[in-house]
Amino acid sequence: MTSTATRPRGARARAAIAAKTLRTDRWWFQPLITVIGLSAWVAYATVRVFMHKWYWVDAYHYLTPFYSPCVTDRCVEGSSHFGSFLPGWWIIPDAALTLPFLLLFRLTCYYYRKAYYRSFWLSPPACAVPDGHESYGGETRFPLLGQNLHRYFFYAAAIISLINTYDAIYAFHSPKGFGFGFGNLILLANVVMLWAYTISCHSCRHIIGGRLKHFSKHPVRYKAWTFISWLNVRHMQLAWITLGTLALTDFYVMAVGAGWFNDLRFIN
Amino acid sequence: MGEQKSQAAGKPGAKRQFRIWRGDETGGDLQDYTVEVNEGEVVLDVIHRLQATDAPDLACRWNCKAGKCGSCSMEINGKPRLSCMTRMSTFEETETVTVTPLRTFPVIRDLVTDVSFNYEKARETPAFAPPADVAPGDYRMQQVDVERSQEFRKCIECFLCQNVCHVIRDHEENKQAFSGPRFFIRAAELDMHPLDAKTDRKEYAQAEQGLGFCNITKCCTEVCPEHIKITDNGIIPMKERVVDRRYDPLVWLGSKIFRRGQVPQTFVTSAQQSGAAHSAAAHGGVHSHAGGSHDPRHEAEAQKGVNWHRQVPHPTAAPVDANGRLPLTELTFDRAAAPSPFGDDVTFPLPPEHLNFAHPSQDEPKH
Amino acid sequence: MTETRIERHHYDVVVIGAGGAGLRAAIEARLAGKKTAIISKSLFGKAHTVMAEGGAAAAMGNVNSRDNWQVHFRDTMRGGKFLNNFRMAELHAKESPQRIWELETYGALFDRTKDGKISQRNFGGHEYPRLAHVGDRTGLELIRTLQQKIVSLQQEDKRDLGDYEARIKIFAETTITELLLDGERVAGAFGYYRESGEFILFEAPAVVLATGGVGRSYKVTSNSWEYTGDGHALALRAGATLINMEFLQFHPTGMVWPVSVKGILVTESVRGDGGVLKNSDGKRFMFDYVPDVFRKQYADNEEEADRWYKDPDNNRRPPELLPRDEVARAINSEVKAGRGTPAGGVYLDIASRLPAEEIRRRLPSMYHQFKELADVDITREPMEVGPTCHYVMGGVEVDPDSGAAFGAVRGLFAAGEVSGGMHGSNRLGGNSLSDLLVFGKRAGGHAASYADQLTSRPKVPVAAVETAVETALAPLQRDTGESPYTLQQDLQAVMGDLVGIIRREGELVDALGRLAELRERVAKVSAAGGRRYNPGWHLALDLRNMLVVSECTAKAALERQESRGGHTREDHPAMDPKWRRVNLVCSLDGDTVRLTHKPLPKMRGELISLFDRAELSKYLTDEELAEFDALAQKES
Ligand SMILES: Cc1cc2nc3c(=O)[nH]c(=O)nc-3n(C[C@H](O)[C@H](O)[C@H](O)COP(=O)(O)OP(=O)(O)OC[C@H]3O[C@@H](n4cnc5c(N)ncnc54)[C@H](O)[C@@H]3O)c2cc1C
Ligand code: SF4
Ligand code: SF4
Ligand code: FES
Ligand code: FES
């Protein structure tokens, strides 16, 4: 009988399982539709942003969100509510002040991060499916460290949502004064959804109440937090819905602006 | 109705195809079994039937059979699951069910893996710090204040989230610096605890637990059998709390411009983890001169200049290899020469604020 | 056996068992400055305690300020039908509030009352709301909190001594198979790592047993594979004694279908919230089973019973809420009479009693349990339930104050389910979790001071270690014997069928015969495979423990000729005050199980005067009553 003081322990190997993943369901489906959906949207948006036309329906004061606020000297009359001080070089979008922030807001959004890390970056493509990369540092280093700035893009986005709201209200206008058409409904729906998406943001949830240690000492903020938490659970859906409403709104304004069809008017 | 179901239960079961990984760290493979499966059974029942018939030495863990203890974690058809909560009726009659051990941890035998990684990380996470001036029995907390932490305390430590997390599942080398979702929610739980007296849990999560490695792809939430919203309610709020402290743009900019060297970072350098010293270098981290201490006070003190009376932290772990030995041969060592006796992280001349004097009696326990 | 490698460790206190009792004991020993080892058969934090749902009973008086330790003491004694060790019940009632408050300083988060205190809930047998709880996962909270406290102690050691494991170390997945003695003194414990099959020897002057119960010897049980009565058997073999082994608690409502989840618990709250029991004819049968002594409190018609939920003051309680043992027996009789469900249970119907929304709100975990495990929607269908073996009241006979085992051994302590006496013949729900804390702390503290006052360290005899190694390896070296799984099934059949809820003399005699046969077969069991994580081998080693404990139970059940709490004899259906004065004590003489009678300790005057005479007269002999009257006279 020999006695030892401790158990010898070397490094141990993982189970040698040949297959990379043994998942039998269609795990690739989700990333695939995400890639298709996001790519299609980005393609559409890019085309539209650099089209520099059909973004304003003068008769009804419809302005597409892709051009709001319009700040280049190319902006057609009436469409720029905040002045036009940028040169109209084609590479400069007409909403050059807001689009970058909106882009960054969505790029650093916790949901979109999940979506593109999974489907574009394959890190990982799906749960228990191997990551497509040799090494991985996550968001610990530049540039991905910058994802932590989401909070500040949220502040910007909240301001931009205010501008969009202004646009939607401003659109209740017709050649005869007050007017109300199908386009208004679309603009309104878009703004409501944009607000829902923006407010359901994780950063917003944190700022409103999440950062508190004692909810019981801040009953109002707790109420607000509970409501935002309710919305926050639907953040992914809202992210996709707003992509839809944005594209739809823009398309509608484009179509009416280009004269492909007429706006359906209920009043004036 | 229950009645019909029970009658069905009386009938002899159908034969089903199983593939189970058998083996140990020296290798193994998927073996085919044909087993009888009765109505209402779960995967764990089938494994038990196999033990009682074809494979008496088939190793697997279980305890409660009711999804309460988190012992029976394995991968079923490639998905991390509790086998006692995976009903056979979720599979097609003709489907072959493949069962393998957790992939992220070293295998011991068959379906049993060495999950000690998780216990080590648990041990490093600073415990609850009771408030100094509240006597037992005098704790007063409101239900709304404890609810967030209670959600995380539902955790049954099945380690499925740890297993599925690609940060360590696909990148073994990150195990050193990354604690995993289970311990992020532990940190969150304590940070949200109404009476916890420790205030630096966010910094800890960032600097020592590797919160930044998480790219919020939510697989942990997807597999959690307790349906804890690990990412939405734990990790993201922790990230936001870190932002409160660290990425406030003005503070951040200031530190970038004026201090060059950033806030000092410490790494987990516990002795039982092999190759501790190497990996710090490999990850571009800086070894703190406060050693393995997690205490930011020590950190701050270390920055303050020479302080002859300051508490000297315990030395960092020796750079041992996977077998617990010092890598003495130059051939296999990853540096050109022998390791510096002063520690790999020390450059000369030594800045005066890093000079130390340790009185020999200082380390004796005070009790 | 010379070439077998054995890993040796030196500790001051070795705690066998990492459930609530074991962890609390270890914390106490470590706080007393002792080098402590914790040993557990499964992973750290997976012990049985994790499964407890309802709560931990402690008379804190947070919800009803009239509650105090005297009331709790009374309830406990009543629940145990006055067979409890009064001193244990007293200590338990007095100390459990402190133990619960202490948990909060370790980081536990119980559900709260409006004014921020620990909330307490009602439970069967407790006069006031008394169970501190966290939803329906109180056990998880308890074990996790203790586990995290141990981690925090380890962090302290790391800070002070540079090593997490300097003073407290956890040996997970390690099974102890033998206690080693130096004469009458405990010298250590011998076991194996489940993972590698390697042997391990702990040299320690004090050992605390906290290994939990014995339920695995039954076919239908809510207990896990760990509950093979190891601690009971270790204690017996070391010369200690067991008491009250005839008392097992059968919970009336365990799941019976699907077969695979048979035994898993359906919480009592289902009945508390209006669930009723029906047989296969659709009859609400519990009205036929109200015993005469309970006629006053329990309704005899459905109308009155249904009114009780709304107006408990003017109506008698529904008979579904009779004590656990009564309900279990009633279900058993219905099934035996052929009015059971096809799966061998009865229906527990809440669907027709409450709106679906309400059920989901009040019983979330039951809703999910049935949905996920049985695919039954309890808001639309009745559940099928039957009695399941749940808890063993009997256990190691200990000194109430210190937890030191009686019998011919020193240095052995026991706490938790493995110890006996505290719960008498029937345990109240919620009393176990607080029992673990109160007596865990005591056992740990006393083990530490025992180790302190020793003048010389006991030595582990080499011969004993060699025998232990041989015994452990034997099943692997035989290849002619039976499979351990078959033997376990046979044992479970004997115990389930012959020593179950309702016992008869003939069957018990038969059972003893069969257990003797099984003993021969178990001695020749063989396990296929190697030493590495081999569950077959592990079971083979556990079998002999299950067997000896089952023999104790069967023998004691045969001896006790009355029905009381967790022991029901069909041939002696009534409670007998004479038997109340007796504890049956089980010991091991060589290989044979011995049973002796031992008088119950007499309750102190100030404690017995907490009861009124009318109540006592149901339990006490005339002689004892006369004594009580004399006492009452003197006081007035
Ligand atoms: C489903 C269920 C619900 C319950 N609900 C409640 C409730 O609501 N309220 C209440 O008060 N009580 C409840 N109980 C009872 C209570 O949970 C147990 O009685 C209690 O947890 C026992 O704790 P313990 O510390 O004695 O042992 P356990 O927690 O069972 O721990 C035993 C430990 O001993 C170890 N061990 C055993 N044998 C060996 C060996 N040979 N070598 C090494 N280690 C060994 C095991 O690994 C384990 O770690 C419930 C029980 C069940 C099954
Ligand atoms: S969300 Fe983060 S922690 Fe969770 S699995 Fe993904 S990377 Fe890991
Ligand atoms: S968080 Fe969920 S998945 Fe992770 S260990 Fe806990 S229970 Fe398991
Ligand atoms: S917008 Fe998606 S998280 Fe902030
Ligand atoms: S056995 Fe406990 S969770 Fe599956």
UniProtKB/TrEMBL annotation, chain A:
Q: Write out the entry's keywords from A to Z.
A: Membrane, Transmembrane, Transmembrane helix
For whether the record's keyword set contains Transmembrane, the answer is yes
Q: Which residues cross the membrane?
A: 27-47, 89-112, 152-172, 178-197, 238-261
Q: What is this protein called?
A: Succinate dehydrogenase
Automatic annotation (TrEMBL), chain B:
Q: Note down the stretches annotated as region Disordered.
A: 271-304, 340-367
The family note in this entry says: Belongs to the succinate dehydrogenase/fumarate reductase iron-sulfur protein family.
* Annotated GO CC locations: plasma membrane
Q: Name one GO biological process term.
A: tricarboxylic acid cycle
Coiled coil regions, renumbered to chain: none
Does the UniProt entry include the keyword DNA-binding?
Answer: no
Any one Gene Ontology MF annotation carried by this entry is:
metal ion binding
- Recorded metabolic or biological pathway in which this protein acts: Carbohydrate metabolism; tricarboxylic acid cycle
Q: Which organism is it from?
A: Micromonospora sicca
Cofactor(s) the record lists = [3Fe-4S] cluster; [4Fe-4S] cluster; [2Fe-2S] cluster
TM regions (residue ranges)? none
Compositionally biased residues, Low complexity: 271-291
> NCBIfam families, alphabetically?
dhsB (TIGR00384), PRK12386.1 (NF009052)
Task: Write down what this protein is called.
Answer: Succinate dehydrogenase/fumarate reductase iron-sulfur subunit
Which residue intervals are annotated with compositional bias (Basic and acidic residues) in the record? 292-302
Every 2Fe-2S ferredoxin-type domain range: 16-103
Q: Which UniProt keywords apply?
A: 2Fe-2S, 4Fe-4S, Iron, Iron-sulfur, Metal-binding, Oxidoreductase
Any Pfam family from its record, for instance, is Fer4_8
User: What InterPro entries is this protein classified in?
Assistant: 2Fe-2S_ferredoxin-like_sf, 2Fe-2S_ferredoxin-type, 2Fe2S_fd_BS, 4Fe4S_Fe-S-bd, Beta-grasp_dom_sf, Helical_ferredxn, SDH/FRD_Iron-Sulfur, Succ_DH/fum_Rdtase_Fe-S
UniProtKB/TrEMBL annotation, chain C:
Q: Which UniProt keywords apply?
A: FAD, Flavoprotein, Oxidoreductase
User: Could you tell me which InterPro entries the record lists for this protein?
Assistant: FAD-dep_OxRdtase_2_FAD-bd, FAD/NAD-bd_sf, Fum_R/Succ_DH_flav-like_C_sf, Fum_Rdtase/Succ_DH_flav-like_C, SdhA/FrdA/AprA, Succ_DH/fumarate_Rdtase_cat_sf
The signal peptide, as residue positions, is none
Q: What's the superkingdom here? A: Bacteria
The catalytic residues are 324
Q: Which cofactor does it need?
A: FAD
Which GO terms label this protein's molecular function in UniProt?
A: steroid dehydrogenase activity, acting on the CH-CH group of donors
Q: Name one Pfam family in it.
A: Succ_DH_flav_C
Keyword Transmembrane helix attributed: no
Q: Where does substrate bind?
A: 251, 267, 390, 427
Q: Where does FAD bind?
A: 17-22, 40-55, 230, 417, 432-433
Please state every residue range assigned to the domain named Fumarate reductase/succinate dehydrogenase flavoprotein-like C-terminal.
Answer: 489-600
Q: Which residues form the FAD-dependent oxidoreductase 2 FAD-binding domain?
A: 12-433
Record's SUPFAM superfamilies?
A: FAD/NAD(P)-binding domain, Succinate dehydrogenase/fumarate reductase flavoprotein C-terminal domain, Succinate dehydrogenase/fumarate reductase flavoprotein, catalytic domain
Q: Would the keyword Transmembrane helix turn up in this protein's UniProt record? A: no
PANTHER family xrefs:
SUCCINATE DEHYDROGENASE 2 FLAVOPROTEIN SUBUNIT, SUCCINATE DEHYDROGENASE [UBIQUINONE] FLAVOPROTEIN SUBUNIT, MITOCHONDRIAL
Q: Give the protein name, as stated in the record.
A: Fumarate reductase/succinate dehydrogenase flavoprotein subunit
Instruction: List the source organism.
Output: Micromonospora sicca
Source species taxonomy: Bacteria, Bacillati, Actinomycetota, Actinomycetes, Micromonosporales
